[in-house]
Specification:
Length: 555
């Protein structure tokens, strides 16, 4: 039953109010805001993609020299046991790329790049201090962070296809928009971006039928599976595990239609309290709408907007308003039986019989004490990697509004905070390519190429450009940012309860932050070394100098 849980609708339970809260939340996502990518002409290779490939190749030569790749790989024994073609770090050796491309910038010789810009000692001490900063207690934490410093660059837009699993309320809508305007380019016409698989939705599940339609239309117009132009997809739909008994529909789909691609994963995560607060407000309870209406009314009366209980915001009173509205709708529906929503009618019946059907919505402490928390808000990061530690069965990143209803990972065999930290550093950090839904020795799952952290958006976006070697956009898209942050009505005590209750989600989040710290340090080192070697701000077009300056990183 646990394995199947992600195929159930998120709020499939007796209290039908959730369906209403949910449909309310859905109705806030206007259809116009969702993007479609229907069939387009089969334009395959653009001057831009050739440039990108060349730029990538130059970089690969530089980095290959800088980090003495052969030595690094030989120190990672777990990788060398892999044989899968085109799937391992070994088989994507930069040396191969270096031999197969001409250097278009002969006045920028590789030999100028100084491999000793940063010493091993400096790296080790940085890794140790980052591990300490994020309270990592796994004995392997520092050494895994050192490996993260040495992780070779291996994104290849021609070979790779990435899937962005956008967890609900993680800031992924803005990232989807950013993917359109970078990896998706060229922008053909209307809402179409050539690099993004049609059926991708910034705020919906992956539409496999729509994707298939575009693929078939391209095949009919002379394309081959090898020549399809897609570089990535985004949706609320999970990809992992691709292999094994819990293999996802999306995984099967990509394997069938992109047989020669290396599948890779991309995701976003968020502070565990913010994540729950946002879900509570917007998915479970539809509070954002009520607060907005409340504040609009205040502004109309010449008053200021308010966001906190101290200022006089009473969430419970807004829930009373919401219930009034629901009861009124039920009354109206009575006149039009054909328009009746069954879930709403039974909620009204329950409410009239004296049950408070939105009790969990009245305040964060109502939620924390409610069975709805146990049911939906335990171990919410299960969807990020598909499990928290190596001994846990894989599964559960697939369909639905985050696939709530996970077993608390703290109850699973083999769980410890250290095990979660270590597994996150390896899996989310893209360091262990042996992880497989088929078990030990199975075909490797897509590795994480990039991830973002919502509350570290600037760094996430800077690392995104850097990882994918794409030119920064002028204005970073910002979607669904609320006037009142949902955490504004969470007390310090409410937050502390989540922290205590969810050690695994915190362990995952702390490890993710440590990886991001390493990646930022690594970016600084690499950029510095390249500038010293004669590169310029113009030639390093994928470095977002402006946003780096905003967070006081200058060169
Ligand atoms: C690390 O632990 C200290 C002491 O318990 C705490 O004050 C700090 O907030 C923790 N930092 C993180 C990132 O968890
Ligand atoms: C908030 O609203 C509820 C009604 O849902 C009411 O019982 C409560 O007294 C209000 N709290 C404050 C502080 O006004």
């Amino acid at each position: 039953a646990l394995q199947r849980s992600h195929f159930r609708p998120a709020f499939d339970n007796k209290i039908s109010s959730k369906h209403i809260a949910q449909s309310k939340a859905i109705s806030n996502h206007t259809p116009a805001a969702m993007k479609r990518h229907p069939a387009i002409s089969s334009l395959l290779i653009t001057p831009r993609s050739i440039l990108l490939l060349l730029a990538t190749s130059i970089y690969i030569i530089v980095i290959g020299t800088q980090f003495k790749l052969a030595k690094i790989i030989s120190t990672h024994h777990d990788r060398s046991s892999l044989g899968g073609a085109g799937r391992t770090l070994l088989s994507s050796s930069p040396l191969h790329h270096a031999n197969s491309n001409n250097d278009p910038q002969p006045n920028n010789p590789v030999s100028k790049c100084n491999p000793s810009d940063t010493s091993e000692q400096q790296i080790a001490s940085l890794a140790a201090s980052i591990a300490q900063k994020w309270n990592l207690t796994a004995p392997t934490a520092s050494s895994l962070l050192i490996s993260q410093f040495h992780k070779p660059f291996d994104y290849d837009p021609q070979r790779d296809f990435f899937h962005f699993h956008h967890l609900y309320k993680s800031g992924g809508t803005s990232m989807s928009d950013l993917m359109d305007k970078t990896i998706g380019l060229p922008h053909l016409h209307g809402e179409y971006y050539e690099g993004i698989l049609p059926g991708s939705y910034r705020s919906g599940d992956l539409n496999h039928a729509e994707a298939l339609k575009d693929i078939q239309s391209r095949l009919e117009h002379g394309a081959t599976l090898e020549s399809l132009p897609y570089k990535g997809a985004y949706a609320h739909t999970g990809l992992r595990p691709v292999y094994g008994p819990e293999g996802t529909k999306t995984g099967q789909f990509y394997r069938k239609y992109f047989p020669n691609k290396r599948l890779r994963a991309v995701t976003m995560l968020r502070d565990p309290v913010d994540f729950r607060a946002s879900n509570h407000a917007m998915i479970m309870c539809g509070l954002n709408h009520e607060v907005e209406v409340f504040n609009r009314d205040r502004v109309a009366r010449g008053l200021e907007r308010i966001c906190t209980p101290e200022e006089g915001l009473n969430i419970s009173a807004l829930i009373d308003v919401k219930i009034e509205g629901i009861l009124q709708k039920c009354q109206e529906e009575k006149q039009h039986p054909e328009k009746q929503i069954k879930a709403r009618q039974s909620q009204c019946a329950l409410q009239k019989s004296g049950v408070d059907t939105l009790e969990q919505c009245r305040s964060p402490s109502h939620l924390l004490n409610h069975v709805q928390y146990q049911k939906h808000y335990r171990s919410m990061f299960h969807g990020v990697m598909g499990r928290y530690h190596r001994k846990q069965p894989f599964g559960g990143t697939a369909y639905g509004r985050m696939g709530y209803g996970y077993t608390p990972v703290e109850l699973t065999k083999g769980y410890s905070v250290q095990a979660v930290e270590e597994y996150t550093l390896k899996d989310l950090g893209g360091l262990d390519l042996t992880i497989s839904g088929e078990g030990e020795g199975g075909r490797p799952e897509p590795d994480f190429l990039w991830f973002g952290i919502t509350e570290r958006m600037v760094e996430s976006v800077v690392l995104f450009y850097y990882t994918f070697r794409v030119r920064p956009v002028k204005k970073v898209p910002k979607a669904r940012v609320q006037d009142c942050r949902p955490t504004s009505w969470w007390t310090e005590q409410d937050k502390a309860i989540v922290k205590e209750r969810e050690p695994a989600d915190y362990a995952l989040w702390r490890a993710a932050n440590a990886i991001m710290d390493v990646r930022m340090e690594k970016l600084k080192m690499e950029v510095k070394a390249k500038l010293n070697a004669g590169e310029t701000k113009e030639s390093l077009f994928y470095v977002d100098w402006d946003q780096l300056e905003e967070i006081v990183i200058t060169f």
